[in-house]
Amino acid sequence: MMTLDWTRQTLDNGLDVIVHEDHRCPIVAVNLWYHVGSRNESPGRTGLAHLFEHLMFEGSLHHDRNYFTPLQQAGGAVNGSTSCDRTNYWEVVPANALDLALWLESDRMGYLLPALTAEKFENQRDVVLNERRQQYENRPYGLALMALMAALFPPGHPYRWTTIGEVADIRAATLDDAHAFFRGWYHPGNASLTVAGDVETGAAIDAVRRHFEEIPAGPPPSRAAGAGPGRARADISPTDRGVEHHGAAGAGSGRAPADGPAEERKLLLEDRVELPRLYLAWRSPALFAEGDAGMDLLAHVLAGGKTSRLYRTLVRDRRIATDVSAAQSSREIGGWFCITATAAPGHGLDELDAAVGAELAALADDGPDAGELERALAQVEAQFVYGLQTVGGFHGRSDQLNAYNVYTGDPGFLDRDLARYRGVGVDDVRALAGRLAPDGRVALSIVPASGNGLALAGSAPAEVS
Amino acid sequence: MSPVDRTRLPAPGPAPAARFPAVALRRLSSGMALRAATHAGPPVVHWLLLWRAGTAADPADLPGLAALTGDLLDDGTEARSDLELHAALDRLGARLGVQVGADGTMVSLTTLERHAAEGLALLLEIVTRPRFADADFDRVRDLRRSRVRQLRTVPAAVAERVFLETLYAGHPYGHVGIGTDEALSRMSVDDVRRFHRERLRLDAATLVAAGPFPGAAFAEMAERALGASAPPPGPGAPAPPPDPGAPGPPPARLVLVDRPGAVQSALRIGHVAAPRRTAGYHALQVLNAVLGGQFVSRLNQSLREEKGYTYGVRTAFQFRRGPGPFVMQGSVQADATVEAVREGLDEMAGIGGPRPVTPGELDLARSSLTRGFARGFETAGQVARGVAHLVQYDLPDDEHDRFVPAVTAVDAAAVTAAAARQLRADRAVVVVVGPAAQIERGLGALPLGEPLRADVEVVAP
Hints:
The complex is a heterodimer.
Chain A: E1 7-10, E2 16-21, E3 27-34, H1 48-55, H2 68-73, E4 77-82, E5 87-94, H3 98-110, H4 118-137, H5 144-152, H6 167-172, H7 175-185, E6 191-197, H8 201-212, E7 265-271, E8 277-284, H9 292-303, H10 309-317, E9 321-331, E10 334-343, H11 349-366, H12 370-387, H13 397-408, H14 414-422, H15 426-434, E11 442-448, E12 460-461
Parallel strand pairs in A: 2-6, 7-11, 7-12
Antiparallel strand pairs in A: 1-2, 3-5, 3-6, 4-5, 8-10, 8-11, 9-10
Helix pairs in contact in A: 1-4, 3-8, 9-12, 9-15, 10-11, 11-15
Chain B: E1 23-27, E2 33-38, E3 44-51, H1 65-72, H2 82-91, E4 95-100, E5 105-112, H3 116-128, H4 134-151, H5 155-167, H6 181-186, H7 189-199, E6 206-211, H8 215-229, E7 254-258, E8 264-272, H9 281-293, H10 298-306, E9 310-317, E10 325-333, H11 337-350, H12 359-371, H13 380-392, H14 399-408, H15 412-422, E11 429-434, H16 436-444, E12 452-453
Helix pairs in contact in B: 1-7, 3-8, 9-12, 9-15, 12-14
């Protein structure tokens, strides 16, 4: 259906270099992953990985000015993002500007700290606080993820906090923290660099060596508590490719969904919203772990499109909800599965919960029919192709090659990735649906101010800010 | 291997030449126009149907009708129930998209190369023979009313609505696509059927195809699919709605929507500006890039990168068939609201007067736009939308290939002239969605007159 040709070479300093040729459009993508994310932060300094990502655009020793100007000048696009497991940086430039992108990426990998000043740090801290206000605090339902993660994961688990971090921690972070973070994690041996597009493989590898070989290997990263092995596991699942700046986190230990809290936890959050919304969340398998692809297909059967079971029942037939979604969000050392539904005016969340519960029970008893599963698989397979139409950017081919390389050690994992979906049968989905029981789930009700009566009965206030 | 020279950045120079794909233009036997672009890429085909009737074609008393009609298209056809239709789409892994803009309606279908013909047949069935059942109408209308209600709590959505309602009061552009709760409450399925019958006729549509097929193969697929879907014949293609003219003056220059205790203010600052076919289009693109259209631009550099007041602000000339808005938008921390508004107005005034574009800014904007050209047409969907853009705005077939030379020819005098003509800080409307108690006094001190209070109305349930 789709192939992704690549060549990989590891430099002496440990940097993985992957090249993918595609000469159809005269552009080239540079995509650089550092295997560090918010799960490598320490309590009290949450949000540091993401704040640090911002600092990477503010200049390095040999180009001590912002990184956007020269890339804009070249006609390029540039961005970066942080998740719980990794931080990525990318440029998409005209084919003749490859050296510029490599020069900049190598300069900030090798020579960032001499240019990293208190003034830049303070400015970007303010920007990040405003990012947090815009994307979370001042957005309806914006604090849901924080409440869910804190309830799904026990103290000490690095997915307990979200990537954006706590306000107090962002305010408490220091320039020294940023310097230490760079020294600990930003090394060639903790990075994977993909060049994709209108380039010749040999020339591209030479260009990378010219720019990156001079950077010393640095000490091997000391994986923080809760962190997994070096290169293994991923954070990108086909139904949830958009975490990026939102810093979605995942759960657990890669075992079964039943690994969450032993009992149901019912939480309540008042927010500036018009309609109450219910979140039902369980711990679930890590990316590429047993059951991950099945949970993803289960999400499609439940809420992928207008023929899905929950959409039909809640939105189309009974009209008790305005929308419903389900997603398996698998991350490097755990995952979480969440069903979300917003109540239609005049309906409460207990009613939604009962309707969801009945559909889950039906799936757990009888499983999906073969047609449902085929359609879900067809959608997943098509989405792989659609997502790989671009050489660069978030989720393009260069990003996916790096994801596979960092999490599985195999940039060519695409075939196996698809195969694990094709191997899921109706009985697998039925069994997975059976794990979505009230025990071990977190049920979060977000309701309008003084609308507590619309929440699930017996909910206790969640503490988030 | 010699080490890299770190004393200077590589200077790549002009980008490799890139051309927009050739487009084969045909009139199909049904009267519909086909524009097919052969695009070498992954095995993906993008079909797109365009009508030049969008939210500006809403009846004056029924804002939201075009978008409601678009929303209902995929709820079943004469031949298939909604569930059968979506099951068929899902089996192809197809993505159906309905976009109802101010001047046009686009219904698109993305599918894999091997499903291209089946995908088109489904797309045509959807748009020519929608079911528009009473029960579906009732449900979808209610969902859209709930959506209006929910958008009252989304600061940027409130700002957008109030901005358009203020700039274009009483004008076809004076409402957001979803319309008002009150108008939705009065709509009937007959309104939808009529809008579809009159505005979304097949002989008034342009079919755009992009993907790895030659033009003749696209045409053959289209003829075959059209034959099967037997469009109702009509007398002559209906004319698109006339291009709206300029609206009258806005009722106020400062509009405040209270969001008590909000930590940020959502801003819209701007005014009615130029239509897409303005002679100064390319100069306005360069002007916008310098002012706020790119990351490195006057406003974003100041408000984000120097002051840290915001996650980002941007500006745009939102081109339309009639005069579209110029707008600066973003969210700023509440205590910086007044300063950000003042600075926005100040930069709008400065670039056409006391602080004209510098040679460095001009060079950065032009090279960014021209060298980044190829990047904009990498996927089949981007190419198809590029073709549709020409039809939507009556632009010549070589418009995309003219872009690079036309932007290159823009000089500083042209930017200054464009700013003087099309940026009018003295006429700008400022919409703020934020904590009134904290910001109203400061805003009132700006030379914008008395603040008008606004809100988003919904019908009592």
